[in-house]
Design a protein that fits this description.
Blueprint: H1 2-29, H2 40-47, H3 57-77, H4 90-104, H5 106-121, H6 123-134, H7 153-162, H8 168-178, H9 190-197, H10 202-221, H11 235-245, H12 250-268, E1 271-278, E2 281-289, H13 293-298, E3 302-303
Parallel strand pairs: 1-3
Antiparallel strand pairs: 1-2
Length: 305
């Protein structure tokens, strides 16, 4: 009992120490210009974290070395940064890292597309897990989950990957994108719940969940050739993205790329997409079954504007 009490006290002290280091800097520097050396008190607090009996050295190394690597590298690159460019947010880091991995290993890009396609093939599993989440079968669940616990996206991704015929290292990398990589903070069943409560049927809600998970996957693979061919991203979609980027607004561009990812998922699922662009960006006008066999074969949608 004494050992447990000491461990709990240590955990509290470390958490409070790290939190206070950040709070004190914000209190002192609020309203001024952020510079990376403001992070030093937090780095110092993290460096005091040491494992004791019952704790894993590897887990502590993962956190402590990561924080120090971020701090040292960023201090060597620049003095300050805009809040919207915060590189400490994992889902900002993951996409460019994946781009590098795609260039280093072309087979990995093929594996990513196989995973995206496998999401639709696991529709029954996705529907089952969405119903379990929605109905409260698992009780409280965590969106930001790294432990593959039941009811999490990481758990679902792992179950789909286990039966997929792709190299093990590719499975591990895809799984890392959703766990520590945090390419999205999406919680399993979110689209299912929203569709159901908006008046859609359970079957429609299930499809909405599949589409959302595929959209998140396509966000990681968009803009490069799909496996098994040299065709680039469908011409209608590519043109939309290029013209939208002409606005030059970083935040708007991020939102427009989300739209493009959604369009791409519909196209890959054989749906016809009508798109119109106005002065403010891109609007999806209508999504429905493809109206010509050649369009599905070519994998393109109709674009306007």
């Amino acid at each position: 009992m004494a050992q447990s009490t000491a461990l709990y006290q240590k955990m509290v002290d470390e958490a409070v120490g790290a939190t206070k280091s950040v709070f004190n800097v914000i209190k002192e520097k609020r309203g001024g210009t952020f510079t990376f050396d403001h992070c030093k008190p937090y780095v110092d607090a993290v460096n005091k974290m040491k494992p004791i009996e019952g704790q894993s050295k590897e887990v502590f190394d993962l956190h402590v070395k990561s924080v120090n690597a971020h701090y040292d590298i960023l201090m060597g690159l620049t003095k300050t940064i805009r809040p919207e460019d915060d590189p400490f947010i994992e889902h900002y880091q993951t996409p460019p890292i994946l781009e590098i991995l795609y260039e280093a290993d072309s087979g990995f890009k093929d594996a990513m597309w196989k995973f995206i396609d496998a999401i639709a093939k696991n529709k029954a599993l996705i529907g089952l897990e969405s119903v379990r989440r929605y109905g409260g079968m698992y009780g409280l669940t965590c969106v930001v989950d790294f432990a593959l616990s039941v009811g999490s996206v990481s758990n679902l991704v792992n179950r789909i990957l286990r039966q997929l015929d792709i190299p093990k290292q590719h499975k591990q990398t895809i799984l890392a994108c959703k766990s520590w990589g945090m390419n999205t903070s999406y919680g399993l069943g979110g689209a299912f719940r929203a569709a159901l409560e908006s008046g859609k049927t359970a079957a429609e809600a299930e499809q909405a969940e599949v589409d959302e998970l595929q959209r998140a996957g396509a966000a990681l693979a968009v803009g490069r050739p799909a496996p098994g061919g040299d065709e680039p991203m469908p011409p209608g979609v590519a043109r939309i993205l290029v013209s939208a980027r002409g606005h030059g607004d970083r935040h708007r561009e991020r939102g427009l790329e989300e739209v493009v990812h959604t369009i791409l998922v519909h196209i890959r699922n054989g749906r016809h997409v009508d798109v119109q662009r106005d002065d403010d960006g891109v609007v999806i006008g209508r999504v429905g079954p493809t109206d010509h066999p050649a369009m599905r074969k070519a994998g393109v949608g109709r674009g306007e504007g």
